Amino acid sequence: MSELRGSGNQPIRNSEDYRKFANFLNYGTAPVIPKASRNDSEREMVVDIPSLADTELPSWHGRLGEVWVKARREKLVDNLIVHGSHGNQTSNSYSDLDMTLILDDRIFGSLPQMNKLRKWLRNDLLPAVLSVDPLQHHGPFFLWNNLIDNYLEDILPIAVYQHAWAMDSVKIGFRPLPSDTKGDAAHRSLISLQDSSKFFSRGHTMYDMKRYLSNLMLVPALHWSDLGTPMFKGESFEPFYEKFGSAANPIKVASDLRQKWPTTPEKISKAVQLGSQVKGGLELARQLYHDDSVSKILINEIMPGISDLADSVARS
Q: What is the percent of the chain where pLDDT is above 70?
């Protein structure tokens, strides 16, 4: 067995460490291999995640199941959990396919297995995800036993998994680590959103607008996590609106736009599917899809209010 060694091995101490690890798997950035940590706390939050009955299966479940079975057979992934709006079956044309993959800790010691996992993510899972949402803008989350025993809720609130289903029903006993420090992830996200050049260097494509809006609509959940009260994203909006009043209007408009989001045209979906099989092709296909009615709302009704919202969050 080829071993993974070197400065890339480190414990997951915060959400930034986790993000670097997830980016390594999903996007091929610098290697980060998690080291085992220890949590002496006996506090545990148990979540039962069911599988779906045959009558509840979405149309794309079969294809996703096939690629998962392949990963399980090759000992890359133990289970696959779907959460978010597809997890609680409230999805619409805007919805990403949010998922978490449960890994076996032993995979971190094998270079060939890690490389196989990364290839499966790119060549098998990604096309299956794009068949559900051609504008998907992020990869899956990851769990493994040691992270479950040393869990950081600023990665993803545990409540997310209470609104989910799995390929195989599973009971997860999270042992969350305490967080005594007030975070500022919501404010940092809003500051980033003020610099639109980070998102729209290629123009206002539907892919980039969706990525921008998704970052914006994550702000309420980030805010409550910053305050030490993490909650399910769908339940984070109303208390956020009550707290920030008119300053929260950009998020209200974005949420309304999400409900009216147009279905991606079939020709764009096919272009994205084909593009995902060629180096650079996916990025090119994403530039083909524009919608002036969406960009008008974004530019005129949402973006002008981001600065005021950032100031309000910073003062809270």
A: 96
